Inverse folding.
């Protein structure tokens, strides 16, 4: 990676990257809880961000864009490690769980108990419902794109998502009550 001293794009990139680096690091660790891999992953993320910086839409916020690229770097890293047949000690997460954690971690408005409850509730969903939720929210696909790729009607997917959101809200409230959290803002 080359950073010429007089390049305005380099200065702009660094002015965005440096203050957000701790948040990106925390995001990566939240979806890939293997501290031993963190430095390698952050290097890959930084390289990816630099290489794709020309495509960054300056009218949008940097951190969500950076975290979405970091998410794909984590998936790429996990795929590479699985091909290398490395055995990890500790927790090994499925791609669905990584996607779910990425979605949760990027939602900064949720308090930690709500995030934990949502994680539990997402894990309780049947596979098809979880796939639809992850395809819609983790990857950012529009309902129309999702419907076309799944060969389903837009109306049907809206109904599925509405039902799943309702189930998740009920489940999260139940989880929070069971864990003794009584004072939360409306999450529905």
């Amino acid at each position: 990676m080359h950073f010429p001293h007089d390049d305005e794009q380099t200065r702009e990139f660094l002015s965005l990257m440096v203050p957000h680096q701790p948040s990106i690091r925390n995001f990566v660790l939240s979806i890939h809880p293997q501290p031993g891999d963190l430095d390698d992953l952050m290097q890959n993320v930084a390289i990816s961000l630099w290489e794709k910086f020309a495509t960054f839409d300056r009218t949008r916020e940097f951190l969500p864009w950076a975290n979405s690229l970091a998410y794909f770097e984590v998936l790429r890293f996990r795929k590479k490690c699985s091909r290398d047949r490395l055995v990890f000690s500790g927790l090994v997460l499925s791609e669905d769980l990584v996607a779910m954690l990425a979605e949760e971690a990027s939602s900064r408005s949720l308090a930690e108990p709500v995030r934990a409850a949502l994680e539990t509730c997402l894990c309780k969903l049947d596979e098809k419902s979880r796939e639809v939720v992850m395809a819609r929210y983790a990857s950012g696909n529009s309902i129309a794109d999702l419907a076309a790729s799944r060969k389903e009607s837009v109306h049907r997917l809206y109904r599925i998502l509405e039902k799943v959101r309702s189930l998740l809200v009920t489940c999260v409230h139940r989880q929070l009550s069971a864990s003794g959290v009584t004072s939360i803002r409306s999450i529905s």
